[in-house]
Design brief:
single chain; mainly beta; UDP N-Acetylglucosamine Acyltransferase, domain 1; six-stranded parallel beta sheet; 25 strands; disordered N terminus
Length: 213
């Protein structure tokens, strides 16, 4: 049975976002200008997606998910109820989110969905898994295939199963290994300085964490 016009997005010429004809966007929705939703996606009701986002092929966005501005979601990613992505987040191909810590097919736990917050500018690598209830810090970098089981500090480089911090990443996506004469870590691309305040706390000295690039 072919979809009705309300089911099949991309048929309205008045919308200022793009939806490929093979995808579905269920009403009501709030989708920002310039966003592109590509092949075989499904956006369920009551989703909020910001401006200038990209949803690659076969992305599923469940009800009540919130996606900020300039978020890039690569192929084969499902965002389940409880997931919040702040501005400038990158979700690599086939990365995984969950929303129940102890799922069973025979037991309904819809009232136990946990929140997962991915903060501004964080990167989640291909095939990484984010176990629900975690907060991924600003500009953190989750390596491909890692399994995150708890909160992640800002700028942390997380690798392995289970994921552990293996270093720091700059806002421009470089591993921070070089230090200047004052002992501050320096990004090789931007030259911005980063200071370790204490264990698991890093701050950029040249650009506020809440300020976009």
């Amino acid at each position: 049975m072919p979809p009705t016009p309300s089911q099949k997005a991309g048929t309205s010429t008045s919308r200022n976002f793009f939806v490929h004809p093979s995808s579905y966007v269920d009403e009501p929705f709030d989708i920002g200008a310039g966003t592109k939703i590509w092949h075989f996606c499904h956006v369920m009701p009551n989703v909020r997606i910001g401006e200038n986002c990209i949803l690659g092929q076969n992305v599923n966005v469940a009800s009540d998910v919130v996606v900020g501005n300039n978020v890039k979601i690569q192929n084969n990613v499902s965002l389940y109820t409880g997931v919040i992505l702040e501005d400038d987040v990158f979700c690599g191909p086939s990365c995984v989110f969950t929303n129940v810590i102890n799922p069973r097919s025979q037991i309904k736990r819809h009232h136990l969905y946990e929140r997962t917050l991915v903060r501004r500018g964080a990167t989640i690598g291909a095939n990484a898994t984010i176990v629900c209830g975690a907060t991924i810090g600003r500009y953190a970098f989750i390596g491909a295939g890692a399994v995150v089981r708890g909160d992640v500090p800002d700028y942390a480089l997380m690798l392995g199963v289970p994921a552990v911090r293996k270093g720091w990443m700059s806002r421009h996506g470089h591993r921070l290994t070089q230090r200047n004469a004052e002992g501050q870590l320096v990004c090789p691309e931007s030259g911005w300085r980063y200071h370790e305040l204490k264990d698991n706390v890093l701050r950029c000295l040249d650009w506020d964490e809440e300020r976009p690039l």
